Amino acid sequence: MAKVVPDEDALTLAYRRSVASRYVASRLRSTVQEAQRQAAGVHVPDDLAALVAGGLRDDRARSWDDIVKQLAVRRFGPDQG
Question: How far apart are CA 76 and CA 1, in angstroms?
Fold first, then answer.
């Protein structure tokens, strides 16, 4: 099977896409690290277990993890930290 080298436009596009992908990966790593630092400083409710238990009583089909996420969203909003 013969290998084919794409034309200049395709090669240029692929090269730029690779550079952009590396940039995004780098920014994502730093964003995740910053989010983890922010989360480490957040006060966790003292009664978190009781809040989760109450959520499970209210809706047995939900997972405890889903309830924790909902509590965090209520406290900090969907796009806030």
Answer: 57
Kindly report the average pLDDT of the chain as a whole number.
Answer: 93
Can you give the residue ranges of every domain in the chain? 7-41, 44-81
pLDDT at 27: 95
Q: What's the angle, vertex CA 79, arms to CA 61 and CA 26, rounded to 5?
A: 110
Go through 44-79 and write b for each residue having 16 or more CB atoms within 10 A of its CB, e for each that does not: eeeeeeeebeebeeeeeeeeeeebeeebbeeeeeee
Low-confidence residues of the chain, pLDDT below 70?
79-81
